[in-house]
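To whoever is on call:

I kicked off a structure prediction for a single chain this morning and the downstream step that reads the tokens threw a length-mismatch warning. I double-checked the sequence; it's 380 residues and nothing unusual in it as far as I can see. Pasting both halves so you can look.
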Amino acid sequence: MPTPFNVKDIRRLLDNDKAPCLSLYQPTFRAFPDSDQNPIRFQHLLRDLERMLAETADPATCQRLLAPLYELAGDRGFWAHPRDGLVALRTPDLFRVYQLQRPVPELLVVSDSLHLKPLLRIVQSADRFQVLCLDRDKVRLFEGNRHALDEADLAPAIPRTLADALGDQLTPGDQTGFTGGRGLAMRHGSDDKGVAIDQDRQRYFEMVDQGVLEYHSGADEVPLILAALPDNQGHFRALSHNPFLLPRGIDLNPFALDADHLRELAWHILQPYYRQRLDRLINEYGESRARDQGTDDLERAGEAGANSRIRTLLVDADRHVRGRLHRDTGKVERLADGASDSEDLLEDLMELTLQRGGEVVVVPHDRMPTESGIAAIYRY
């Protein structure tokens, strides 16, 4: 089954050193009839990957590594819900499948390390966000960008409903929220029950807030937009400890909206924050460059990356530079234009920056402050 991915997952994958490592990237189609070609194309790529692996691995190793990939090829449930791209990563110690909201170039790599560069450009893009859809007794989470929004699989620790959260401790009648009674003789009991039901909601919201922060918005390090009716907006915000929660939300019943409408409303809210963030980073780069604490020179940035000096790296979303970065020394090796698509100097620098604890932000081409494809801000 597909796995959600975030910045922390990427850093763990970058540290994988168990070879051989298999990386399969495939553009996929969401809509019928083109979507019928997705599993067929995957099977063709898988056979090509097997031939590549067989050049260096014995038959038993090939069979062991490829078994979960062939199982995925025949999983009808998986192929019933495609997105815009697919990546399958396999090593002797792990198997990860990610469905992507942006297309990726078709690519097969068998190497001593996982090929994560296309994935990096997606997970580090500045326009990513999440939408938390909340009612007093249920929750859903969506994630996406300005172009696409899809429902995310909530972490198992997050209760899906109020009944899941409270179980036997749920106040009777709380599924409807009915607190009424008849006459003055019922007033006190009705008020007590109303207080108990409000307390149920508060406990549920606290569990949701904690889980979403720990497993989703905090792990992904992306803005969170709350979609809920005004009363639930107020209650949730009063108790939330999530620093990624934006102050403005969608004040509608989110369960009455389809994903595309939800995306439009969310992007309208996020766009000013998105622009402000890019303006701040660009201004920070300009100030750092003026103090000789930043650079757009690839050679200098490579050396700084190897010495763990890069705090923030801005990367042009549309720029590719054929080359390699030697991570121990930071030396840049330029390659001819005919080199493999997997050889990208900018993405080598992205990987190195993340491995050394820096931040990477993929910026639209028209907002990049440099022509080289990168803008590095130093720690010191």
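Update from on-call: the warning came from a stale cache, not from the record. Cleared it. Sanity check on the structure: The CA atoms of residues 5 and 98 lie 7 Å apart.
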